[in-house]
Amino acid sequence: MSPRSTLNRPPGSSKSLQKAIRILLHLGENGPDMSLTQFASALRLNKTTVHRLLRALQKFHLVERNPHSEKFRLGLKFHALGARSVLWRSLPCDARPFLVELSRRSDETAILAIPGAAGIICLDSVNVSSALLMVRLLPGDFIPAHCTALGRAILSWLPDAEVHAILTRWGMHRYTSNSCDRPRDLRYALEVHRRNGYAADHGELEDGLVSFAAPILYRGNRIVGSIGVSGPQDRFLLVRAKMKIDLVKNFAAKLSKLFSRGPAEFATISPPYVSQNLE
Question: Which whole-number Å values give the CA distances from 145 to 120, 179, 232, in the listed order?
Answer without folding.
Answer: 6, 11, 20
